[in-house]
Design goal:
The chain has a 3-stranded antiparallel β-sheet with strand order 1-2-3, with no helix packed on it. It has no helices and 3 strands. It has one domain. 0% of the residues lie in helices and 56% in strands. It has 41 residues and is mainly beta.
């Protein structure tokens, strides 16, 4: 587990390490909507 501090808020990163690879990477922390938009395809 790694705790990360940013200007936008704190969160933590959890993961599993297998040899030289990282798997099951998860970011955990508070969220909020900062942008909303639409794209016509």
């Amino acid at each position: 587990e790694v705790k990360v501090k940013t200007r936008g808020g704190d969160f933590k990163v959890t993961f599993e390490k297998e040899d030289t690879a990282f798997t099951n990477i998860m970011l955990q922390g508070p969220t909020c909507c900062v942008f909303e938009g639409h794209i016509d395809l």
